[in-house]
Amino acid sequence: MTMVRNTRQRQAVIQALRETQSHPDAAWIHGQVRSVLPSISLGTVYRTLDALVRDGVVMTIERAGQATRFDYKHGGHVHYHVVCRQCGAIHDVSAEAVTLPSAGLPAGFVVQDVRLEYHGLCADCAQPEEQL
Amino acid sequence: MTMVRNTRQRQAVIQALRETQSHPDAAWIHGQVRSVLPSISLGTVYRTLDALVRDGVVMTIERAGQATRFDYKHGGHVHYHVVCRQCGAIHDVSAEAVTLPSAGLPAGFVVQDVRLEYHGLCADCAQPEEQL
DNA sequence: ATTGTTGCAAAAATTTTGCATTAAG
DNA sequence: CTTAATGCAAAATTTTTGCAACAAT
Fold it and tell me: Which residues are listed for Zn(2+) binding in this entry (chains A, B) (predicted)?
């Protein structure tokens, strides 16, 4: 019987995620946690984050060539993401009004996570090219 | 005035994408295109795919640590993706019934691409652990 | 002619992994 | 005690880039 151990590393990673409003990447989390556990390794941060994602308490925003961003599901609140392709800024969008189709999925597929992402340019990055 | 040149490399990459029903990665596309243009480099495939994504004619499914998968928008048909976390299989889901919220986005954000992804386990990978 | 593209190869970056050691339960 | 989890460092992968040569317009 496999049991998850409540290590200090795990606690610290979870706390770091809980404390931030941003959507940090593994390196940022590592930096934060280091102030509490100076010897924690980046590998452990990655392994812990993987576990949290599998447990469904953390969401990810994944972009090729960019570090994965992690997002703690505060209170299990369902929400989606707005991602700026230029600067990488990520904003949350509450999911109140969204009704996603549950039909049309392949037979037998077990949904573990639904992601709705709007990719584009944030207000700052979209501003018309000032006269160059 | 920047103009896109219709190179043979670009044509070949587009054709490879059009011909497949799968959601190939850059390496697969490179392999395909090589049968027509033996000397095309993987770098060029990546650059071409980037351009096609920017042009909005190709969608991507991006996963950390996994090669990005590319999907040609045949006839501009809007659809979403079902992704198996285990085996990486990707299925399309038509978007007919979906009504996505256009409100709630940050002011001034310019949406270029909307992604709806269902992540989980496909029927094969989800089958209950046979008695081990 | 111009200059956007290519091929090559090296580099950058992110994420994963093997293994001996540590520590949670 | 047991064995899941850690730290370290190396490895594996994917993606990006600099630059001289090439080719589309």
Answer: 84, 87, 122, 125
For residue B126, the distance in angstroms to the closest alpha carbon of chain A comes to: 7
**Are A30 and A90 found together in one domain?**
no
Q: Are residues A3 and A61 in the same domain?
A: yes
Q: How far apart are CA A11 and CA A14, in angstroms?
A: 5
Higher pLDDT, residue A95 or A116: A116
Q: Render pLDDT for A6-42 as a digit per residue (tens, 0 to 9).
A: 999 999 999 999 999 999 999 999 999 999 999 999 9
Range of the domain at A40: 1-73
Contacts A102 to B, Cβ<8 Å: none
Query: How far apart, in whole angstroms, are the C-alpha atoms of residue B23 and residue B91?
Result: 8
CATH number of the domain encompassing residue A59: 1.10.10.10
Run means of pLDDT, 10 residues per run, chain B, 132 residues? 88 97 96 96 97 95 97 90 94 77 84 93 78 40
Q: Chain A residues within 8 A (CB-CB) of chain B?
A: 60, 62-64, 68, 82, 84-85, 91, 93-94, 97-101, 103-123, 126
Q: Cα–Cα distances in Å, from B51 out to A3, B23, B42, B78, B121?
A: 47, 17, 14, 19, 32
- pLDDT at position A124 over 60: yes
Is residue A50 over pLDDT 70?
yes
- CA A51, CA A4: separation in Å to the nearest integer? 9
Are both B16 and B50 inside the same structural domain?
Answer: yes
Chain A residues inside the 8 Å CB shell of B132: none
B40 is in an annotated binding site: no
3-state secondary structure of B18: helix
